[in-house]
Automatic annotation (TrEMBL):
Gene3D superfamilies: Periplasmic binding protein-like II (3.40.190.10), Winged helix-like DNA-binding domain superfamily/Winged helix DNA-binding domain (1.10.10.10). Transmembrane segments: none annotated. This is LysR family transcriptional regulator. It comes from the Bacteria. Keywords: DNA-binding, Transcription, Transcription regulation. Signal peptide: none annotated. Belongs to the LysR transcriptional regulatory family.
Length: 309
């Protein structure tokens, strides 16, 4: 039983696409089909059922996937255990949203560099929707964003949570005043990208008070939102910890409200496929790094809920 056939089946089960699997394994679609057929002959069962251009795992395929993933995981653990961390030479592809990049991701990056100096690290900063799309296509190894991947085979866990604050230019905001939700609704608002988790929180926040914002601008970039707020184009609900310097310097003012904006919870997702044991170690290191970062912040700005891990 060839190791390549086992690995191909696991990747195919994850990506659900012969073309993407071939690209990921740097081979051809006929080679993928050949490896799958060889594995099916060896096991004496059909592992996938085709439906036109689509396919799904058969009951035997699901059982085989469970066993093969464990076999390959054990083998990867054996290999990594015999390998000096300094000699681990792979490419690690990390996806993260702005709020993570601007807080503890640099610390994680530094620790990865120190622990695995031979690893090439690629960091992609994008929206949650796009990062999860890249993850499902096999273009990322681990993501830190605002939604989990709920599909079979993926692992997701809560990394940390950040408190949110409404902020704006001191020229626009009276810091001594407590604003109602109705009053916020009359001000120009700068929000996250439409369809994103933070954007989905905006409408309920105002609809609870039967108020809809009359002036709404969207951006998929947290730094852009902060810049627009600083320049007086509106107020924005952002993670407080990301704008501490701007609040301290007076470039931004905190909007005191009678109804707090809900906190953001950040989630890590990855897929334990052949060769991903290092990714699992990165996930564990990310847990520790985020917890350490949160413990060093002003109480109430960032925290870890260990019951959700």
């Amino acid at each position: 039983m060839k190791l390549a056939n086992l690995e191909t089946f696991v990747h195919l089960a994850r990506l659900r696409h012969f073309g993407r699997t071939a690209k990921h394994l740097n081979t051809t679609q006929p080679a993928i089909s050949s490896r799958l057929a060889a594995l099916e002959r060896e096991l004496g069962v059909q592992l996938i059922a085709r439906e036109g251009r689509e396919f799904h795992l058969t009951p035997a395929g699901h059982e085989a996937l469970r066993v093969i993933e464990k076999m390959l995981g054990d083998f990867d653990g054996l290999k990594l255990g015999f390998t000096d961390p300094e000699n681990v030479a792979i490419t690690l592809r990390i996806g993260a949203i702005d709020a993570i990049v601007q807080t503890w991701l640099p610390r994680l990056y530094d620790r990865l560099r120190q622990t695995y100096p031979g690893v090439q690290i690629e960091i992609v900063t994008d929206s949650t929707v796009n990062l999860l799309h890249h993850m499902k296509n096999g273009e990322l190894d681990i993501t830190f964003c605002l939604d989990p991947i709920l599909e079979e085979g993926y692992r997701s866990f809560v990394v940390c949570s950040y408190a949110m604050s409404w902020v704006g230019s001191p020229k626009l905001v009276d810091e001594d005043r407590i604003y109602t939700v109705a009053e916020l609704g009359t001000m120009p608002l700068i929000t996250f990208q439409r369809g994103s988790p933070p954007y989905r929180m905006i409408a309920p926040y105002f609809q609870d008070e039967s108020v809809l914002a009359s002036q709404l601008s969207n951006s998929n970039s947290l730094p852009t939102m902060i810049r627009l707020a600083m320049d007086g184009f509106g107020i924005a609900a952002v993670p407080t910890i990301v704008v501490e310097k701007e609040l301290d310097s007076g470039d931004l003012a905190s909007v005191q409200v009678n109804k707090p904006f809900p906190p953001l919870t950040f989630i890590a997702s990855y897929h334990p496929v052949p060769g991903s044991l290092l990714t699992e170690r990165v996930a564990e290191l990310a847990k520790r790094t985020a917890a350490e970062f949160c413990s060093e912040t002003v109480p109430g700005l960032a925290w870890v809920d260990y019951n959700l891990r």
